[in-house]
Amino acid sequence: MKTALIKTFKDKSFPIQQQAVETSGQLSVFFKKKWIYHSLFWILYYLFICTAFYTAYDFHDLGFYIQLSAFMPVSAVLVYINIYILIPAYLYRRKYLYYALTLTLALFVMAYADQLIKNLYIHLGYKIYTYTSGLGFKSLFSEAVGLFYLTGFTTGIKLSKDWIQNQQLMKEKEKQYLETELNFLKTQIHPHFFFNTLNNLYSLTLKKSDQAPEVVLKLSALMSYMLYESNAAKVSLNKEITYLQNYLDLEKLRFGQRLYVSFEIEGEIDEVSIPPMILILFVENSFKHGVKNNINKIIIEISLKVEGAFLLFSIKNPIGENLSKENTGIGLKNARRRLELLYGNNYQLDISENDNEFIVSLKMPAR
């Protein structure tokens, strides 16, 4: 009953969710059109100027506010010269003196254009501009200061927008780099693994063992997993466990009674997903360094447990005789690097030696 209610709720809410997604997409497309938000900016700026004059001088002449629109193109030309020519050509290239000089020149040229418009209005009989018109330095400087505030505000918008875009671009490049590195690490796994497993098969065929066909089937299953599953970002833990068990079966066939493997699994594993080909690195390492030059009975203990939101994995193997501690191969380094790329600091990997045993303990997210 509970499942049915949840399903009904989801079915009813789906059109609402879909409509919200479509609306969000439409707004995103809307604001990607530059001319729209540029037009909105100049409309809002014009309304701000009108409001400022009305508040400061209490003008009620509608014609005056219509006349103010004639100054908007001059301001727009100044702003676009600054953000599309001067900033890229001088400011971003750290030519600060050139930028300051050319911007000052542009401010006075546009101030001169504004004063010409005021003189034209005076000639047409609008005396309200008499006190602020004029082509002298004082009048031009006062008008340039007014334009400077607008230029500074739009420069801030331009710099902020470009900074955000650069940050997004850097994040995208970093993401692509990490994905490339992860793919490279996976290509390191495949040859390393095939080399080991083909050696297993070769040793059995030399002995003309009846177990060779079984090895081929197991190897086929392993190759299928590596080809079709390992490229996914995550796979179910059940599939990864099956992959590990196939690998362990191959090793058992190779070493026979001399090898004893304990593989304990605890917790709810059905809903857990993890990155593929992570755990195999530790298993391969235990065989490579726990079996090499070891003529005694080999005991490898593997434990896998799902506890809350984390997966706990540990493996113990004996340390082979005359094995250099520095010779750890690419396995553990590869595993640690992949975990860093995938989880950052949200994992824990401990590697230690105790009483001739090599112990690896891993705690990683299980979702």
| Order of SSEs | HHHHHHHEHEEHEEHEE
- CATH homology superfamily name of the largest domain: Histidine kinase-like ATPase, C-terminal domain
Radius of gyration: 36 Å
CATH topology-level fold name of the largest domain? Heat Shock Protein 90
Distance from N terminus to C terminus (CA atoms, Å) equals 27 Å
Biggest sheet architecture: 5 strands, mixed
Q: Helix/strand/pairing class, anyone? A: alpha+beta
**What is the CATH top level name of the largest domain?**
Alpha Beta
CATH architecture of the largest domain: 2-Layer Sandwich
Number of helical elements = 10
Low-confidence stretches: 1-21
Let me know the average pLDDT.
78
Architecture overview:
The chain is of the alpha+beta class. The chain has 3 domains: 1-28, no CATH class; 33-171, no CATH class; 209-365, Heat Shock Protein 90. The protein contains 10 helices and 7 strands. The protein has helices at residues 2-32, 34-57, 62-68, 72-91, 96-123, 137-206, 212-228, 237-255, 279-291, 331-343, and strands at 235-236, 259-266, 273-274, 298-307, 310-318, 348-354, 357-365. The strands form 2 sheets. It has a 5-stranded mixed β-sheet, with helices on one face. It has a two-stranded antiparallel sheet with strand order 1-3. α4 packs across α6 (137-206). The longest helix is centred in the middle third of the chain and has 70 residues, at 137-206. The two termini are 27 Å apart.
